[in-house]
Amino acid sequence: MAKQITVTDLFKMKKEGQKIAALTAYDYPFAKIVDESGIHMILVGDSLGMVVQGETSTLPVTMDDMIYHTRIVSKGVEQAMVIGDMPFMSYQISVEEAVFNAGRFLKETGATAVKLEGGASVSHLIKAITSASIPVQAHIGLTPQSVHQMGGFKVQRDEDRLLKDAHEVEAAGAFSVVLEGIPSDISKKITKALSIPTIGIGAGPDCDGQILVLHDLLGLYDRHRPKFVKQYVDLGKAARDGIKAYVSEVQEGKFPAKEHSY
Ligand code: KIV
Q: Options 3.30.70.100, 3.40.50.1580, 3.40.50.1240, 3.20.20.60; which CATH number does 7-231 get?
């Protein structure tokens, strides 16, 4: 069995200038495909609320949803680091609840780290969770759980605030930080200033790594397509074509044929 990637490997990759490739996944078959494709980091993102559950934001996602999906993802992964995303209201209420819920990911799912959204305002939570020996990935910039406070999914441009957030999450013990929806020049400065790896999404080419939502890359989600998305294949079309062919063959009596029958 291949050795699973650890936080130490990620620090080494940053030091050596080796780019980190990350993706989300939400279930066993796709996690297996993503892992076999050489991805370093798999985030079981609360984006599942939108791309799997059909919600219009990530806010309705629960801890039980996240535990279920992270567990079935872990079963398909041998090599990548698996990170469980802490959903809205699983860490904001109290330090105790934050540590308890972060602990559930490691105890119940096979994930080896958690992610939570926010900068300076959540640094005390990052400190408490890492003190419990749970690696934390921070997430600053466009933080989708704050969609209503931000007035929509908007690029964040306050350089002083972003740099402060980045420094504070690093000082609190985060092993990595996702930079989302941030102009490239600011992400470049943050990446240079930090010793922990930055993972960008809509944050330009100079981050230490990149992450995309799997369903965007595969063409399985067409409700909302931000500028930063690159669709590499159209699995939606392939699936529709295959299913249409099945429907026709059933209606025409061509399926099942002799070779599919006992
Ligand atoms: O929930 C998610 O998928 C994320 C990534 C887009 C970083 O937070």
A: 3.20.20.60
